[in-house]
Amino acid sequence: MKILIKNGRLIDPASDRDERVDILIDGGHVEKIDREISRTGKGAEVVDATGLVIAPGLIDMHTHLREPGYEYKETIKTGSRAAVRGGFTTIVCMANTDPVNDNRSVSEFIKSKAQAEALCRVLPCGAITKGLRGEELAQIGEMYEAGIVALSDDGKSVRNAGLLLKAMEYAKIFSLPIVSHCEDENLAQGVVHEGHASLLSGLDATPALAEEIIAHRDIMLAKYVSAPIHITHVSSGGTVGIVRDEKTRYGRLTADTCPHYFTLSDDATLTYDTNTKVNPPLRSGEDVKAVREGLRDGAIDIIATDHAPHDVPSKDVEFNLASFGIVGLETGFALSLALVHDGVLTLKELLRKFTENPARLLKLPYGSLRDGSIADLIIFDPDTEWVVDKTQFESKGRNTPFHGWKLRGKNRLTMVNGKIVYRDPAF
Prior knowledge:
The chain is an alpha/beta fold. The protein folds into two domains: 2-54 and 372-395 and 407-423, Urease, subunit C, domain 1 (Roll); 57-362, TIM Barrel (Alpha-Beta Barrel). The chain contains 13 helices and 17 strands. The chain has helices spanning 76-86, 104-117, 140-146, 161-174, 196-201, 209-225, 237-247, 285-297, 312-315, 332-336, 338-341, 347-354, 356-362; strands at 2-12, 17-26, 29-34, 45-48, 53-56, 58-63, 88-93, 121-124, 178-180, 192-193, 205-206, 229-231, 253-257, 302-303, 377-387, 406-416, 419-423. Helix 2 (104-117) runs parallel beside helix 3 (140-146) and helix 6 runs parallel beside helix 7. The longest helix has 17 residues, at 209-225. The two termini are 20 Å apart. The mean pLDDT is 97.
């Protein structure tokens, strides 16, 4: 069935478009975009987008869906439901499942499970090393054939620089980006950022240096073999500076950060709320400013959620014992819209970090809306205010520090491959 979207403001960074249009969807593709479309053929559903923004579907290149192995925390089905509610039409799931996605069979399982149950596109990220142990390379070629779009031992850094160098040589062959979790485990012995807040709380602390050392090392290794390298969940102002500086000399370097790193500082951990325990940890107020500046000047290319759902027992314990991570698929875009409201980014610049840039990095045919393109899109109101209620999440995870927050900006409709998969009851 055809769908006609009327009177919306289309913002498509990839085509540098920002104008009021009508969009006609036929099957899984955009048939036509024009200022006025009146003839659609029989049986077209009309969606009135007056006063709202139409954008390409958002891409989250860093999520944890927990399946296989930890289905009590999240499943591909529940994670995808959270994704489309938050405006994401494509998500990339990390490899730290059980069993680890370090071989063809697990990659194929994720793909088949997603095809059967997911409401959005779910693409697997393969492990760099077997079992994430940092001792032996995973089956990179076979995982590539099975459909992985990146490589990462996320949750751990590859300690052995020589082994990581070999992985980068393989990644270069398959044009797969290495998504680098930057953490020197010998320095990262704490649960919060080392700074004034940790002095007050008395919690074990990790210095920003633990991230910065590995970020610099991994960039140097990638440059040595001319391989693509992506620094993920940047939290430190020092890392922002390293990435900014190295980008002037190396064109295959990209980076992302997450909404909690430009929204919260380590002062939030003074409440001892385990929902503020993330890895890397929330940093100082100066780091928050540096991350926002990195987003503004382009040092940081992409915003990802690092959606990390946990069951209640994993968080309802002492801070030192609690699991790291927060959920982000249902709040990530709305939190990021604060960058627009605060004048850090324009709306087009923000959307580029959720659409065009991750699509280019992962070589995906999504992230843009034009005649003939795949019909993945969202319709959102950048100004509507709403209150975060974790009890209403589609995700199984309730581990968010943003419960009760009033956010400005809300997704109203999500379409994947020409099919409406989420619609706000108020729209």
